[in-house]
Amino acid sequence: MKGRLEIIIGPMYSGKTEELIRRITRRRIAKQSGLVFKPVVDTRDKSFVKSRAGTTIEAIPISKISDIFDFLEDGKNDFIAIDEIQFFDEPIYNILEDILNRGIDVISSGLNLDFKGEPFKSVEDLVIRADDITLLKAVCVVCGKDATRTQRMILKNGEWLPASKRDDVILIDGSIEGVKYEPRCRDCWKILD
Ligand code: ADP
Ligand code: MG
Ligand code: ZN
Question: Is 84 an annotated catalytic residue?
Fold first, then answer.
């Protein structure tokens, strides 16, 4: 039997990592064996995936999706999980299909949209081909409604302002002072020219 492809998407703070860990934990209770991967570009934590609610799980940092093949053992893996797939910013379905064809389930999670409101190539590539899609919502920090978008804020002269369309897409949360991300609904989400 071929593996199943699950994808969890949503803005920052929507609980993607929490949900990924929950699914991994359930599978381990069911005596399934699996490996967890994360992109090495995310410098927040080195060898584990951590949710903002505090739950953690061990993970292998990889720099490209095909690195997963170095860790697979014939017939031994029931599933693999990958967090933060938006950082592999290229179509990755072809590579994952190889894994699915070996009967291994793939559970993935990533940001639905970048701070400009544009999709990530890897995420959209998986969403349209997945067997199961979950869209999680955070709480809009401005109005409290469901948030489906991620707002980037920049500190300028002591004031937090929405980021501009011309800024780089990848800027890790907490890696640079003066940059922060907030979950926001469509009404409260803003981008400057
Ligand atoms: P993600 O991986 O999607 O960024 P996490 O799983 O790391 O999300 O964190 C989700 C947790 O973040 C929630 O369970 C909650 O405890 C916390 N949290 C803090 N601020 C918010 C917010 N504005 N909306 C939703 N959850 C929030
Ligand atoms: Mg996360
Ligand atoms: Zn709002």
Answer: yes
Q: Please tell me the predicted confidence (pLDDT) of residue 156.
A: 84
83 within ligand 1 shell (Cβ under 6 A): no
5-137 CATH: 3.40.50.300
Our separate counts of H helices and E strands in the chain read 3, 13
Residue 114 tokens, joined: 């970048």
Mean pLDDT per segment of 10 residues, for the chain of length 193 residues?
A: 98 98 98 96 74 94 95 95 93 96 98 96 97 98 98 91 85 74 97 93
Check 6, 19, 84, 124 and give the catalytic one.
84
Let me know if the fold of 5-137 is the same as that of 139-184: no
DSSP secondary structure string, 110-147? EESB-TTSPBPHHHHHHHTT-SEEEE--EE-TTT-SEE
Is 3.30.420 the CATH classification of the domain at 139-184? no
Domain residues of the chain, as ranges?
5-137, 139-184
- Residue written as token pair 């993607």: 16
Assess contact for 5 and 106: CB atoms under 8 A: yes
Distance (angstroms) between ligand 1 centre and the Cα of 175 equals 19
Contact (CB, 8 A) for 140 and 10: no
Q: How far is CA 184 from the centre of its chain?
A: 17
